[in-house]
Each structure stands twice: as structure tokens, then as C-alpha cells.
């Protein structure tokens, strides 16, 4: 018997985690919220990867583990696979997802752009959007980092949102 | 079934997070210490073998007197090690798989820090029951 939860609950929980950490817990020091959210994601990723690698044999090298993350892990979490994987064969991987599920329903209100600025308003709007959604990507970065560290690969993960709803995760493996 | 067995779960940094004597034969005090010593000595061999094979279950990697060490490796960090003197390979494999599931359930507990000692008596009871069943 598998218990199921509505996906909207998961998305609302993600949004609320970000907003409560940024405005509630760390209201005076918002830059501390990001590592905290990432640490939560790390623990979650660690446990998820234990569960999903239960029946399969261990991975022989880094590329195999990354491919597991791109295919099975991502499809278990987000019901789709990573759309594009790039590597420079020197320890850096770029995982690109063309429609990231947790960000797909987010929109940025253009009226939040303050009037009276000299800069180009569309650039300002993009900047605001990038900042707001950037916070929501710390949790998935933490999940990827936790999953990889459980597979024996210490790494650093960062997210890049140049064009929504596509986003890419850059994984740098520490040698 | 009379056999001696010592079961240990070793985490990252070679710290044992769980150990149990699951034999049915009453043992002397120093034999228990010897069992732990043998299992620790086998860790180096486990490390070497882990790189050569991608299978999870390594049977009979080390012998000492009559006792054989078998190891079940999960994702490089955590190793389930068993010191035993019987030749019951299938039973041991099933035992390892069941303990693996138990361990994952322990890990899913958000209050459990991965790598710390497993102190739950429920886990302990279940492992001993499984040992009686499979070994």
C-alpha cells in the first residue's frame, strides 16, 4: 500500500519553506536562509538515494552515478528525466531540465517592478524574477548534492536560471 | 543450529554503528572481542575488493581459523559484515537483504543522523529474529 500526496501540497510546502526561512526565521540575515534550505535538501537527497538504489548494483564511476541521477532519480521525483546532460570530462556536469516541475507553476508579477527606475524595466523584471526563483532552487540543489554524496561523490551543486521554466544544475565534482 | 556469528554494520570512516552477536552457542568473553577484531581486520580487504566488483554481495572474503567473513556493501559507505562458520550462502544473502531494508527504514527517520549509532531496541529485536530465521 503506497500512500500518495497531492502534488500541489508538495509545491505549496516548497514555497512556504522558502518564504518562512527568508522572512521569518532569518529575517535579519536573509543570506543564511539559503545554506539552511540546502542542508535540508541534502538530508532529503541522502535518504532518497538510499531508497532508490536499493536493488541495483553499485556504480562503477562518476558518469554512471550522474546518469542514474538524470534518469531514474529524476523520474522518480519529477516524473520525467533530465532533458540534456553536458560534461567537460573534467568533473563538471550540467543537467538541464526544460520544464522544472516545481517552478512550472510560478509566475512573477510584473507590477512588482518599482517605477521610477532609469533602467530598462524588462531587465529589472527579469532580475527580480531571477532572484525570487533562485531561492526556490536551493532545495533541489541540496537534493542532488545529498544523493551524489551518498553514492560516494562529494560535489558542489549550483543552479542556473537564465530562462524559465528551463533550469540547469551545474555539478562540480570535488577531486 | 549451532553456529557462532557476529554481525556488524560499519559506516563511513570505518565506525561501527551497530553490532550484534547472533550465534546460538554460548561464547567465552574473549571470543567476542576476537570476533570484533577479525571483522575490523577484514575491512581493508573489503575496501580492495569493493573497487574490483560492482556486485553488492561479497561472500567469504576472509578466513580465520574456521570462521568466514562475508560482506554486503551498500553504496561504498555502509558495509554489512558477518562473521560466521556455516556454509549457508543463500540464507546469508537473504539475511543481508532483509537487514538492508531495515537499515533503510531506520535511515528514513528524519531524526536519525546518518552515521550515528543505531540504538533502537526495535531494530535490535528484528535483526536478532532475522538472524535466527536465516542463519
UniProtKB/TrEMBL annotation, chain A:
Gene3D superfamilies: Trafficking protein particle complex subunit 3
CDD domains reported in the protein's UniProt record: TRAPPC6A_Trs33 (cd14944)
Coiled coil: none
InterPro entries to which the protein is assigned, alphabetical: NO_sig/Golgi_transp_ligand-bd, TRAPP_component, TRAPPC6/Trs33
Pfam families: TRAPP (PF04051)
Superkingdom of origin organism: Eukaryota
PANTHER family, per database record: GEO08327P1, TRAFFICKING PROTEIN PARTICLE COMPLEX SUBUNIT 6B
Family according to the record: Belongs to the TRAPP small subunits family. BET3 subfamily.
Protein name: Trafficking protein particle complex subunit 6B
Protein's organism: Rehmannia glutinosa
From TrEMBL, chain B:
Alphabetical list of SUPFAM superfamilies matching this protein: SNARE-like
InterPro entries: Longin-like_dom_sf, Sedlin
CDD domains from the UniProt entry: TRAPPC2_sedlin (cd14825)
Protein name (record): Trafficking protein particle complex subunit 2-like protein
Lineage: Eukaryota, Viridiplantae, Streptophyta, Embryophyta, Tracheophyta
Amino acid at each position: 500500500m503506497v500512500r500518495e500526496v497531492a502534488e500541489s501540497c508538495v509545491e505549496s510546502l516548497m514555497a512556504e519553506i522558502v518564504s518562512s526561512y527568508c522572512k521569518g526565521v532569518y529575517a535579519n540575515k536573509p543570506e543564511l536562509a539559503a545554506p539552511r534550505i540546502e542542508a535540508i535538501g541534502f538530508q532529503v537527497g541522502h535518504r532518497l538515494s538510499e531508497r532508490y538504489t536499493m536493488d541495483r548494483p553499485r556504480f562503477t564511476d562518476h558518469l554512471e552515478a550522474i546518469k542514474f541521477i538524470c534518469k531514474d532519480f529524476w523520474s522518480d521525483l519529477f516524473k520525467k528525466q533530465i532533458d540534456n546532460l553536458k560534461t567537460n570530462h573534467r568533473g563538471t556536469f550540467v543537467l538541464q531540465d526544460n520544464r522544472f516541475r516545481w517552478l512550472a507553476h510560478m509566475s512573477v508579477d510584473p507590477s512588482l517592478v518599482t517605477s521610477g527606475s532609469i533602467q530598462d524595466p524588462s531587465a529589472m523584471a527579469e532580475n527580480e524574477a531571477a532572484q525570487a526563483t533562485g531561492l526556490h532552487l536551493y532545495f533541489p540543489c541540496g537534493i542532488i548534492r545529498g544523493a551524489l554524496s551518498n553514492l560516494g561523490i562529494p560535489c558542489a551543486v549550483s543552479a542556473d536560471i537564465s530562462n524559465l521554466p528551463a533550469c540547469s544544475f551545474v555539478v562540480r565534482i570535488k577531486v | 543450529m549451532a553456529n557462532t556469528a557476529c554481525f556488524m554494520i560499519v559506516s563511513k570512516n570505518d565506525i561501527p554503528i551497530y553490532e550484534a552477536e547472533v550465534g546460538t552457542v554460548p561464547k567465552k568473553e574473549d571470543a567476542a572481542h576476537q570476533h570484533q577484531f577479525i571483522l575490523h581486520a577484514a575491512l581493508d580487504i573489503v575496501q580492495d575488493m569493493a573497487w574490483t566488483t560492482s556486485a553488492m554481495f561479497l561472500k567469504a572474503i576472509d578466513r580465520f581459523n574456521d570462521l568466514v567473513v562475508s560482506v554486503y556493501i551498500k553504496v561504498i559507505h555502509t558495509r554489512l559484515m558477518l562473521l560466521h562458520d556455516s556454509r549457508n550462502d543463500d540464507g546469508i544473502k537473504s539475511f543481508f537483504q532483509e537487514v538492508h531494508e531495515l537499515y533503510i527504514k531506520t535511515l528514513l527517520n528524519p531524526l536519525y543522523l546518518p552515521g550515528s549509532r543505531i540504538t533502537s531496541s526495535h531494530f535490535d529485536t528484528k535483526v536478532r529474529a532475522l538472524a535466527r530465521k536465516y542463519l
